[in-house]
Amino acid sequence: MSQFLRAAMDYARRGIAVFPLQPRDKAPYGRTIGFKQAAHMPGLVEDWWTGRRCLELKPDAKNKAPVRARIDSNIGIATGAISGFWVLDLDGPEAEAAIARLEALHGPLPKTVQQATGRGRHLCFAWNPAFPVRNMSKRSQERIGAKIDVRGDGGYIVAPPSVHPGKPEEGIPPGRIYAWTPGCSPQELAFAEAPAWLLELVCPPPEPEPVRAPIKPRAPAAGRASAYGEAALDGAVRTIHGARVGSRDTTLYRASCSIGCLIAGGEIDHDYGRSVLIEAGRVHVPDAMTVAQLERQVDRALAWGESRPRSAGERPRQRSVQTERQASATKGVEAIREDGATEAARLWDSARSAWCKATTHWFEARGLAGTPCGATEVLNRFRVHPNAPIGGGRTGPSLIAPLVRQDGDPIEALAVLPFEADRITHLVGDSDGRVVMLTPLRPGHEPESLIVALDLQDAWYLLTQAWREEISAGAVIAPRLSTFAGGALGDRWGRIDPDAPAHDPTRPPWRASDQRSVWLAVRRDIRGPEMRARAFGGGSRPVRLEGDEASRFYGGLATQAWQRPADDFNPANRVRVIGPLGTGGFNVGGQV
Predict the structure, then answer these.
(1) How do strand 517-521 and strand 449-453 relate by DSSP bridges?
(2) Is residue 230 within a helix (H) or strand (E), and if so which, with residue range?
(3) Which residues lie below 8 Å from residue 66, measured CB to CB, with a gap of 6+?
(4) pLDDT tens digits, residue range 49-76?
């Protein structure tokens, strides 16, 4: 085993996410997604460095030829929440002088994991969810000091024993070996908590909302709009006034488009509607736009709306029940809420043991013949029903499993996995915030790590892999990403809602003090709900993320939602998103 592979696997076992870099270089392999595929599963890391597994290509790569890493590949570590630490990069004497001035003012930095670089050193500090540090270079040099960079979420560093490519122009010869400072490697020292003064410098609070001028109440003009038109104008004004930073221009455009439709339908006088919209939009001048930009945006929106007339008798199209159901980040799951608890209890009571030939055949067909490390208790959590609802008004033989918030809850909701399907297709009862628990998660029995998967096969396979690596892990199935994220998966523009309720820290498994980390397994065949995106030339267009793009987006969004700081919620453990490298899922073709 090469020294590079040995070191990479050791980092992975310690929960540090690694990925291959080109030999004797700082750059990832060409055409690959680089640090975005970083992982801390030792089996996967071994497959990368031995060339048994191809590296993941960029979605837009024109050349689709497989890329395999070499056994002497340098080691990259993805910094941020995924690895549990961020890095203060001191590059040379100017940086040392700047940090010395700060230490003289605020006090010395604690001893922490540290490595020597070409001209300076990397100081590695423990990740704090309340301070989500991101990459900084120019800004960090302005706030902290010259030649000081920050590597957090979205960044990476080169790790020992990688070989430095050299920088002759700076007097750094090629071939130098990266090394941890003696006594300060991750094997010898824990990542120290950064002092508050440093965290405030590298992760400043957001700029406060600008103080807006008092909003004058709108006085309707008699005879210039119908009662329906006046009500619509009132709603548009409230919407425009309440627009948040970052969405004010778009909110103005959408509200004005709606009014433009009513102007064309004869409900509102054109000049009257335009003046009301412009007056409402002035609360965002000059913070978000100039007066000229405001007027131009309103006129463009009215022109769009006037080509689509609508009157009081023609209400806008409402979202269907099916569309509402698709607000989940997973597809193919139907929920029944009417008297669901009674139906779930009836189905469970009339089901039989899961230890039967049908179950055995289903697992064998998917390469999951054995229970994880012989843990028979896992399969005891399921039952088999000959005529369970499988969706589309059909019934059939299926595995059924209780959906609960914690062990011991009454059976009020079920997940249905038909023997003819590969995943859960139907939910019975109210599934909000509930999961299928594959392993016990009760006080005194929490594993060090928790696997949260959206699919039974993935949870089963990843749990087996974790136990083979001697990682103390438990597993649950969350049929929807929104269950994991506490329902805070963002609005129709893909943004986290900062006013969403904080998660309930008393409900396991989302808050378990004995767990070192949570692994969120996101499949590549995920298909998200319809969102909106800015369209070229103004307005918006519908967009739906699928495949790799969706798995990365929703995985990151769920992580943000779960780790979002709140007054009464401070997560005790990190969230790590696991993205499969194959086309179907984690367990297809022997994938990890």
Answers:
(1) parallel
(2) helix 227-241
(3) 54
(4) 999 889 988 888 888 899 999 999 999 9
